[in-house]
Amino acid sequence: MKVAVLGSGLGGCITALHYYFHGRDHIDEIEIIHDSSTPIQPVGQGTTPDITELVFETLNNHRYPKKNNFLNTTIKIGVEYENWSKENLFHHLSLTNTACHYDPAELSQAVLRSGLFKVNDKVIKQAEEEVDADIIFDCRGRELNDDHKYQTLTNPINSVLLGKKAGHDPSLLWTKCVATPDGWCFVIPNIDSTSYGYLYNNSITDSDIAKSNFKELFDVESSNQLHFKNYLAKSIWTGERTILNGNKFA
Ligand SMILES: Cc1cc2nc3c(=O)[nH]c(=O)nc-3n(C[C@H](O)[C@H](O)[C@H](O)COP(=O)(O)OP(=O)(O)OC[C@H]3O[C@@H](n4cnc5c(N)ncnc54)[C@H](O)[C@@H]3O)c2cc1C
């Protein structure tokens, strides 16, 4: 059986790794077809233990020795919710089942270079007409989404300001989600910096006010801003042999 995965963002990469590992008795070849001139999403660092285990088993990214942590991951033992209630809440992962934070671009490049997949740099317009595979996973992101095939989801946030503080914080072994006057902010440790994402709704909070609150509360200048729709495909299937995943699905 031949499987094609369209896209090399987190959606495409995790789909490819999943079927490489779990489909190994049935799948002869997995081809990743992606358009290298369309960048992947810069966000999506936090994972659950199953993803960390999948990356460990397939790409052999380890935590020790340092050279074997070529993905530059940091440990995630849970999620801390700060300012959401009188006391901070901590959702602890099982200690036999911890997760990691990744850099999406580094993970994507490692998957493409892993040698586990046939990789094709090509723009796909009509998947089922252009792709030779028994099953196609369409993970081409949200840019090409055809609105009438999606339903809108209610989510109070639709924008994020991204920023980083230089330097590793050795005490931060988890993801932090901090409630703010405008929404919430994620705080994620990297090996040489800390990532911040200040989430808000741009129809409620002016982006200049969000930027100034981001700076005042976290002492971070925003280096990038994203706006996103909140949606779900009406069907995960399309055509005769295509399944949607990643931002193509929701
Ligand atoms: C603020 C924020 C924080 C988030 N945090 C997390 C988190 O901590 N953990 C988490 O798991 N998720 C997180 N997410 C969600 C996560 O970012 C997305 O689920 C993920 O990035 C989606 O990746 P994707 O592969 O679907 O799309 P993309 O990253 O957009 O990739 C699309 C791919 O398709 C390719 N492509 C596009 N058009 C074509 C074409 N015509 N032909 C061929 N290839 C094409 C592109 O080259 C690219 O490789 C977060 C999202 C936001 C907005």
Key phrases:
250 residues; alpha/beta; Rossmann fold; 7-stranded mixed sheet; 6-stranded mixed sheet; 5 helices; globular; binds flavin-adenine dinucleotide
Question: How is this structure best described in words?
Answer:
The protein is α/β, with parallel strands linked by helices and 250 residues long. It has a domain at 2-45 and 103-146 and 231-248: Rossmann fold (3-Layer(aba) Sandwich), CATH 3.40.50. The chain is built from five helices and 17 strands. It has helices at residues 10-22, 49-59, 104-113, 127-130, 207-218, and strands at residues 2-6, 29-34, 74-76, 78-82, 89-92, 99-101, 118-121, 135-138, 150-152, 159-166, 175-180, 183-189, 193-200, 224-227, 231-233, 237-238, 242-244. It has a seven-stranded mixed beta sheet, covered by helices on one side. A six-stranded mixed beta sheet has the order 7-2-1-8-17-16, covered by helices on one side. Helix 1 (10-22) crosses helix 2. The longest helix is centred in the N-terminal third of the chain and has 13 residues, at 10-22. The model has no long low-confidence stretch (mean pLDDT 97). The structure holds flavin-adenine dinucleotide (FAD). Residues 6-12, 33-35, 38, 40-41, 43-47, 123-124, 139-141, 160, 197, 226, 228, 246-248 line the site of flavin-adenine dinucleotide (FAD).
